[in-house]
C-alpha cells in the first residue's frame, strides 16, 4: 500500500519506498487491508494545502515525512460511501484551515487507487457521472424560461450549473430527489456551515446562501413540476439555505396547496428539527419524509458544533418522536468523522437515541471540515476508540430494524426486498 502524494502543481504520485498511513482524529495509524476498497467511480483526488504527507519508510519501519515541497492527498467520495480514515498528514502551517471537504485516506495498491471506506448505499443515484451536463443545461433553460418570474428557479440554476449540486440538478432533470430551498435564516450557528461563515471563522463557505423569502407560488410551481412520478421526492432544506422550518408558514401553505392538486411522490424536509412546534405544523400539513441533521446524541458535542439558538437536543428528539408517531418516515443525517463518531460513548448514546425516536434510517454522511479546527471545539474522548468499521458493525447488530445508508429513500425501499449496497 504505497503512499500517495502530490507536488505543488497538483500532479499525483505514489511513493516507491513509503507505505501509506491514515488518521483517526489526531492519531496517525496504519491502514488495514480490510478497510480498503477500489477508488469508487465519481470520486475526486485532491491535494491538501498546508500539509506534509507522512508514511512508513518500508526499509526501516520508521514514520517519516516526504522530503520536499509536497502535499498530502485525499479522496472526496460520492454519496453511498462512508469514510473510515482520514489521510495521513501533518500540517505545515497550523494557522491555516483546510477547505471544507470530507478527505478520505487513499493509497496506491495493485496498480490502482484504493480508499479507506465502506459502501453503505447504492451510489448510482448520486454519482456525478450520471448527470449529463448538456441535458442539464437544456432543462435549466427550459424551466427558467417557463417560469421567468420564479426566483427559486433562477437561484437553483446557479446551484445546478455553478456549484454542480446534484439535488438542484435533479430539480431541473425532474428525477429522484429534487431541491426546493425556502429559508435565508437559521436558528443554529453550525461550525463549518457550508453556506454562511462569519469573517473571523477562518473558513470560506463553498457556496452562497439564498438571500430572499420565496413566495408560496414559487415553491408550489417547483413542487408540482417535480412530483410527477410515484418515486419522486421534493425536499425542503438544502446546503444553499438556512433552517427551512423557520419558514414553516409558507411550507405548510405550499404542502397543502400541492396536495390538493396531486398525491404523487413524496415531500421531504431536511432540518435540524429544533423548532418542535414548527415541525409539528409541517408534519400535520402532509409531510412524508423527514431527515434530521445531527453530529452526536451527546449534548456537549452537539452544542459545540451546532451552537443552537433557543433550542436543545431534547427539542430535536421531541420533533423526531412526533413525526414518527404521525407516520412520517424519519432518518438522521449523521455527520460522521473517524476518531470521533466511533468513540465508545458516542456509539452508546446514538444507539439509545435511535431507539427512543423510532428512526428508520441512519444516513452516514462524511463530515466536511478542517480536522484540527473541529477537534479543537468538541469534547475530548471519554471512552475507548473503536474504529469506524467496528462502529458500523455495532449499529448493524444493536439496531437490526434500522437501515444504514447515505441518503433519503421512498417508503417502498423499507418494505421491498432491498440490498442497500446493490449497485445498479
Description:
- With 424 residues, this protein is of the alpha+beta class.
- The protein has helices spanning 133-146, 151-161, 166-173, 216-226, 248-261, 276-286, 299-306, 313-325, 344-357, 371-377, 388-398, 412-415, and strands at residues 2-6, 12-24, 27-30, 36-38, 44-48, 51-57, 63-65, 71-76, 81-83, 86-87, 89-91, 104-109, 112-119, 177-179, 233-236, 266-271, 289-294, 329-336, 361-366, 403-405.
- The strands form 2 sheets. Strands 1, 2, 3, 4, 5, 6, 7, 8, 9, 10, 11, 12 and 13 form a 13-stranded antiparallel beta sheet that branches.
- Helix 5 packs parallel to helix 6 (276-286).
- The radius of gyration is 22 Å and the shape is globular.
- Mean pLDDT is 92; it is low at 420-424.
- Its cofactor is [4Fe-4S] cluster.
Amino acid at each position: 500500500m504505497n503512499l500517495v502524494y502530490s507536488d505543488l502543481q497538483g500532479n499525483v504520485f505514489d511513493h516507491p519506498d513509503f507505505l501509506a498511513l491514515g488518521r483517526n482524529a489526531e492519531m496517525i495509524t496504519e491502514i488495514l487491508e480490510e478497510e480498503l476498497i477500489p477508488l469508487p467511480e465519481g470520486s475526486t483526488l485532491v491535494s491538501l494545502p498546508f500539509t506534509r504527507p507522512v508514511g512508513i519508510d518500508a526499509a526501516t519501519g520508521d514514520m517519516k515525512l516526504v522530503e520536499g515541497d509536497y502535499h498530502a492527498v485525499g479522496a472526496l467520495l460520492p454519496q453511498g460511501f462512508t469514510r473510515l480514515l482520514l489521510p495521513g498528514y501533518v500540517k505545515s502551517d497550523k494557522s491555516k484551515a483546510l477547505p471544507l471537504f470530507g478527505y478520505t485516506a487513499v493509497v496506491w495498491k495493485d496498480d490502482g487507487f484504493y480508499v479507506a471506506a465502506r459502501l453503505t448505499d447504492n451510489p448510482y443515484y448520486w454519482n456525478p457521472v450520471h448527470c449529463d451536463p448538456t441535458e442539464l443545461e437544456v432543462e435549466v433553460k427550459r424551466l427558467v424560461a417557463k417560469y421567468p418570474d420564479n426566483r427559486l428557479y433562477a437561484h437553483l440554476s446557479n446551484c445546478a450549473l455553478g456549484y454542480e449540486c446534484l439535488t438542484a440538478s435533479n430539480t431541473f432533470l425532474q428525477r429522484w430527489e429534487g431541491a426546493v430551498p425556502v429559508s435565508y435564516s437559521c436558528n443554529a450557528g453550525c461550525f463549518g456551515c457550508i453556506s454562511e461563515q462569519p469573517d473571523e471563522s477562518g473558513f470560506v463557505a463553498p457556496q452562497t446562501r439564498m438571500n430572499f423569502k420565496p413566495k408560496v407560488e414559487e415553491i408550489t410551481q417547483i413542487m408540482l413540476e417535480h412530483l410527477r412520478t410515484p418515486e419522486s421526492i421534493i425536499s425542503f432544506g438544502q446546503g444553499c439555505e438556512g433552517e427551512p422550518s423557520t419558514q414553516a408558514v409558507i411550507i405548510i401553505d405550499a404542502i397543502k396547496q400541492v396536495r390538493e392538486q396531486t398525491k404523487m411522490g413524496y415531500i421531504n424536509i431536511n432540518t435540524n428539527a429544533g423548532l418542535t412546534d414548527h415541525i409539528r405544523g409541517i408534519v400535520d400539513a402532509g409531510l412524508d419524509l423527514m431527515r434530521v441533521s445531527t453530529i452526536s446524541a451527546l449534548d456537549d458535542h452537539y452544542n459545540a458544533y451546532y451552537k443552537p439558538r433557543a433550542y436543545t437536543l431534547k427539542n430535536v428528539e421531541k420533533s423526531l418522536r412526533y413525526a414518527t408517531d404521525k407516520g412520517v418516515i424519519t432518518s438522521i443525517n449523521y455527520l460522521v468523522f473517524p476518531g470521533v463518531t466511533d468513540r465508545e460513548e458516542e456509539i452508546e448514546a446514538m444507539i439509545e437515541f435511535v431507539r427512543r425516536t423510532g428512526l428508520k434510517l441512519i444516513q452516514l454522511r462524511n463530515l466536511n471540515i478542517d480536522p484540527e479546527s473541529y477537534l479543537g471545539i468538541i469534547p475530548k474522548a471519554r471512552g475507548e476508540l473503536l474504529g469506524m468499521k467496528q462502529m458500523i458493525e455495532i449499529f448493524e447488530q444493536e439496531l437490526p430494524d434500522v437501515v444504514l445508508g447515505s441518503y433519503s429513500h421512498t417508503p417502498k425501499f423499507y418494505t421491498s426486498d432491498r440490498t442497500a449496497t446493490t449497485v445498479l
